[in-house]
Design brief:
- By secondary structure, the chain is of the alpha+beta class.
- Helix content is 28%, strand content 22%.
- The strands form 3 sheets. It has a 4-stranded antiparallel β-sheet with strand order 6-7-1-10, with helices on one face.
- β4 and β5 form a beta hairpin.
- α2 runs antiparallel to α6.
- The protein is globular, with a radius of gyration of 18 Å.
Length: 235
């Protein structure tokens, strides 16, 4: 485990990065085909409500403004009443929104260090997040966390991928643009963000396993992006 000292400024504490890809780290579940559309819709409902509850995946707008959270409340409740406005695609039923990033705008509530201490705010992309923290934004507009259930695969199953475009969640990270030998200590910021992500991942994993799915995650070098034997971020 890398050693650390007490940080002296926000730049010392924000030891995380935004990526030029939305697949910096991925959790996934391969799920056998579920023939009953209502089971897939119920799975989506569980994921959306967990995302809202833990501040990890909030849909702020969808369907070119037909849904707006500030006006309509949670997307999960709105889909119960208006799911027919989301047309079926592939073999996913009407009302299935996840995996269609052109139809909705997600946001996550994230904590980062400032000169006045820790700040929390909602972000729809990692470029704005990095800019708020004074870090290189790379000019990308990926959401902090995205979730993508694939179309049915050839073996009549589908794969759910949860991908992050930032390592703000992890206690130790790659130095990236910094002049630093070895992993950088992000425990102060991770402690504010990782517990909520872990709670969300736990609910998603349970929902996937209820449909017969497995649970996998990115394999990473020792010393960075530490996760436990369930794929949850270590404290």
């Amino acid at each position: 485990m890398p050693s650390s000292t007490s940080p002296g400024s926000a730049s010392d504490v924000n030891n995380w990065n935004s990526f030029k890809t939305d697949e910096g780290f991925i959790w996934s579940s391969h799920i056998p085909r579920v023939t009953a559309g209502e089971r897939v819709t119920a799975w989506q409902d569980t994921v959306l409500r967990a995302g809202e509850r833990h501040g990890i995946l909030r849909v702020v707008e969808a369907l070119d403004g037909e849904f707006r959270r500030d006006r309509d409340g949670s997307i999960a409740d709105w889909l119960v009443a208006h799911g027919d406005r989301v047309e079926p695609f592939g073999t996913f039923p009407a009302g299935f929104l996840l995996g269609r990033p052109d139809l909705y705008l997600p946001a996550a509530r994230l904590a980062y260090a400032t000169g006045d201490g820790m700040t929390e705010a909602w972000f729809t992309n990692v470029a704005d997040l990095a800019g708020a923290a004074g870090l290189p934004p790379h000019g990308r507009v990926y959401p902090p966390l995205s979730i993508d259930p694939s179309f049915w695969d050839e073996d009549d199953s589908f794969t759910v991928s949860l991908a992050t475009a930032t390592d703000i969640w992890f206690p130790h990270n790659h130095p990236a643009h910094r002049v630093h030998d070895g992993p950088i200590d992000n425990r102060v910021v991770s402690a504010r963000n990782a517990p909520r992500l872990n709670a969300f991942l736990t609910e998603v994993r349970t929902a996937c396993q209820a449909l017969g799915g497995d649970w996998r995650w990115t394999s990473t070098p020792a010393g960075v992006w530490e996760v436990d034997d369930e794929g949850l971020i270590r404290g």
